Each structure stands twice: as structure tokens, then as C-alpha cells.
Amino acid sequence: MTDIRVPNEQEGTKAIVRSWLKKVGDTVALDEPLVELETDKVAQEVPAPAAGVLLEILLNTDDEALPGAILGRLGEPQAPGASSPAPPAAAPAAVGAPAPTVAAPVMASSTEQRLSPAVRKAVKAYGVDPATLTGTGRGGRITRADVERRAQNPSAPLASAPTLAEPAKPAPVSGGSNGVRTVPHDRMRLAIAQNMLNSVTVAPHVTAVFECDFSAIMAHRRKHKPSFQQQGADLTFTAYLIAASAQAMRVAPTINSRWFDDRLEIYESVNVGIGTALGDKGLVVPIVHSAQDLSLLGIAKRLTDMTKRARDNRLKPEDMRGGTFTISNHGVSGSLVATPIIINQPQSAILGVGKLEKRVVVREVDGSDAIVIRPLAYVSLTIDHRVVDGHQTNTWLSRFVEVLETWPLDE
Fold first, then answer.
1. β-pairing, 43-47 with 276-277?
2. In the chain, what are the domains?
3. Of the listed 40, 305, 385, 410, which one is catalytic?
4. Whether 205 is catalytic
5. How far is residue 217 from each of residues 185, 212, 340, measured CA to CA in Å?
6. pLDDT digits over 47-84, tens only?
7. 385 a catalytic residue
8. Fewest C-beta in 10 Å: which of 143, 183, 306, 366?
9. Backbone phi, then psi, for 364, in 5-degree steps?
């Protein structure tokens, strides 16, 4: 037999079995997806380590999956015409004893077996029958958003009344007509909460804010975006932000570091994480590795690929591992300034980019002051004050802004 094991390396603090894609007795091919694991950051499929038949499942849905644990076992397919092994004979019943009653096994529906833990909680909280839902997730799986849409739809069937086995829900708060909508925490939201609390608890956050003129990169983008698209890359402002961040690390390398209790690790490789929102589900932070070695086109290609896979829930653990610096482009949702933007521990800093908007400013033109309109955004660097001080922070931001504002049109 061949063991099916939980990968030794995973992105996230804890993994559980989300669903089995095969059942005992099914024939599987080498590398065919067998089981889905879910952590607080990413979902991943475990492929079959060999071809064969799924003989047994040792970790079921919702079971914790520790690194290296055995999920199940594969065996050789049964030869044609071979008889199945006979089950062990039951011990003879005592004379005069009543025959034992064998209860029929209770089998969960295939729909229930494929629900993730977060969806199971939502189904229970809203009283929604999953059999009535059409899944919009990968492979037709039901998502938490599917459950919430049904719960908010006035034409959806009402939740059944609580049975004796279920505790009665508390009476709604009086004084309003809208009532209260209860949304159970999923693992991703709980993990985000724990990580944010840990970061602000252990690290003294300090934020510096600069203003940046985007005129140069906007002109470059207008000229080169079509050629980038022909090469399979969407040229976004984020690509410029990553490239400028990598250049700014040269003048303040301590920004690209990680704090540990007994040391500070400063890295030559600039691995930039990009906070990618997943709507109400939270966010993930895929990594552009070795940004200092990439051209703008190379950065744009990696961003295009990772952003699409993040929103399709197809990121792999290695896509989110090894970050040394993070960018939060919070301006895409409308905010001018956000502070402090919480550092992704154990990193030492995080860049925030606010909303890009046209503003009236005073600039020197041909030796005289002039009132002009420029596309400006506030950029902030939040640092761990245990690691760096204001001098390194402002040096880094000054170089970052300089790179963006002087971007050559034809490079």
C-alpha cells in the first residue's frame, strides 16, 4: 500500500481536511487530485502519490491534518475475476440470546460531504438546505457566498424551527425593525484577526507619509500598455510600485528584513507580497519573488498570473511563502490615507498607497511658481520601530517617490 500524506510544508497555521474528491474503492491515476486541504490562508489539493485504488480514508472532513500525517492509503487494483476477501466471521451468539439488531449506516449526502467547514457553519447559522443551492465555486462546489445569497433572498425557504436537540436562538434586540444577521467567523477571518493583533502587540508601529506624482508612470503606461498586453501581461500601477520598492531597498536595505527575538535577518532578495482582496472572504498575499532581478515586463507577467489565480482560489502554498516586504494598495477602494497599515510579521515594514486623484498644486515652471493639476497619491511606509528609525524610513520613501516621478518614458 502507498500512504497519502499531508504535505510537510504548508502556508498557514493549521490545516484541516475540506473534502475528499474520491471515495473508497475508486480507481485513481498518478497525480490525480484526491483530497482538498484548507488552511487559514489557502486551499490546496493533495495529488495521488501513485496509481491504484483508494483503499481507506483515515482523516475525514473537518479532521485536523498535521504535516506528514497519513490521510489515507492507496493499493493495487484488484485483478479481474478475483473474489473480494470474505469479511471476518462473527462470533456465535449465546444460546437463547436475542439476535443483535444492526443499525443501517447513516450516509451523508454527496452535497454535505463536499461542504467546507465555513460553509457548514453558515448553513447551520442561516438554516439553509444545501441541497437547494447551486454552487458557484470551483467544480460546482457551494461557497459561503452562495449560502448568504440564499439567506438574504426573500423568496428563499424559511429556516426550520429549532429542534429539541438545538438550543433556541436568543430573542432579537428590540428597538429596530431590521433584526440582526449573524455571520459565523471562518478560519481565514479568525487567522487575520489573530495575526493583526499579534503584529500590533509585539511591534511598535510608526508611519511616515509622502506625496507622489504619478504623471511619469501614467505616461509610460499609456504608451506601453498595448505592447505588454500582446506579451500576456496586464501593465498595472502595482508593477511600477514593486519595481520602485526594489530600487528603494538599495538605499535602505534594512527595510527588507525580518525581526526575530535574537537577530535581524536582512535579505538581498526582495520578495514583495501584494495584498489581494477576496471580497468579504478576507485577503491573501501572493509573493513576487526576487523582484530586484525582474524587468517591469517580468513583474507585470507574474502579477497578471498570480492575481488571476488568487481570485480563482488556485494559489499554491509556495506562491505565498517567503515574503520580505508587503504592499497594500488600499487606494483602489477609495481611501486617501490608512494608518497604521499593520505589518505582516515578522517583516519590518509595509507600504501603503492611497487613492490616485487629480489635485491642484504649486510647481515651479520655467523659474516661476505656477498652479498646475497633477495626478497625486499619498504613499506611506509603516515600519517596526524596533528595526528601523525615521532616517531609514524617510530615505526609503524619498528614493521610492523619486523612482516613480522620474520614470523614463521609453524604458
1. unpaired
2. 2-75 (2.40.50.100), 125-152 (no CATH), 205-405 (3.30.559.10)
3. 385
4. no
5. 41, 11, 26
6. 889 899 999 999 888 788 888 889 999 988 655 545 44
7. yes
8. 366
9. -85, 120
